[in-house]
Amino acid sequence: MKHTISVLVENEFGVLPRVAGLFSGRGFNIDSLSVAPTIDESISRMTIVTSGDERILEQVTKQLNKLIDVIKVIDFTDQDFVEREMLLVKVTAEAETRAEVLRIADIFRANVVDVTPRSYSLEATGTPQKINALIELLRPLGLKELVRSGPVVLGRGAKGWKSAE
């Protein structure tokens, strides 16, 4: 089962390896990990996507809560949330395929961020499903390079970190 976990941590050296170690130590692979400062620059938010047994993940969550640098842990698995991911992709764009690349980009509301005589670089944001669909449509045209941010999430509604405590 896929789990999306958000962890609010002190923005300090060494926090990331301690958090990642809890997952690897229990045989969990981290499918994606995104970390950035929050409104308060002394605090960072990690969004971790993993798959696995719920019982073991519950143990990982309890262990995360015990780490001194961890402020709050939310498992969004059974909650409503907004999820977005960013994609940067370089696509072959020879004369015969340039129009097709632009049509696909327009359909997915992707932005052209760089142009060369033989390629377009596109930027897109959306759900992981939207990003996957865009990649699959561009693949036959010739993907040269691709990078994804991994999902970031926010709980739905008025409740935020402060009111969730």
UniProtKB/TrEMBL annotation:
One Pfam family matching this protein: ACT_AHAS_ss
An annotated GO cellular component: cytosol
Ribonucleoprotein among keywords: no
Keywords: Amino-acid biosynthesis, Branched-chain amino acid biosynthesis, Transferase
Catalytic activity: 2 pyruvate + H(+) = (2S)-2-acetolactate + CO2
Xref: SUPFAM superfamilies: ACT-like
Pathway: Amino-acid biosynthesis; L-valine biosynthesis; L-valine from pyruvate: step 1/4; Amino-acid biosynthesis; L-isoleucine biosynthesis; L-isoleucine from 2-oxobutanoate: step 1/4
GO biological process: isoleucine biosynthetic process; L-valine biosynthetic process
Enzyme Commission designation: 2.2.1.6
Domain ACT intervals: 4-78
GO MF: acetolactate synthase activity; acetolactate synthase regulator activity
Quaternary structure annotation from Swiss-Prot or TrEMBL: Dimer of large and small chains.
Biological role stated in the UniProt entry: Catalyzes the conversion of 2 pyruvate molecules into acetolactate in the first common step of the biosynthetic pathway of the branched-amino acids such as leucine, isoleucine, and valine.
Family assignment from sequence similarity: Belongs to the acetolactate synthase small subunit family.
Name of the protein in its database record: Acetolactate synthase small subunit
Organism: Desulfuromonas acetoxidans (strain DSM 684 / 11070)
Species classification: Bacteria, Pseudomonadati, Thermodesulfobacteriota, Desulfuromonadia, Desulfuromonadales
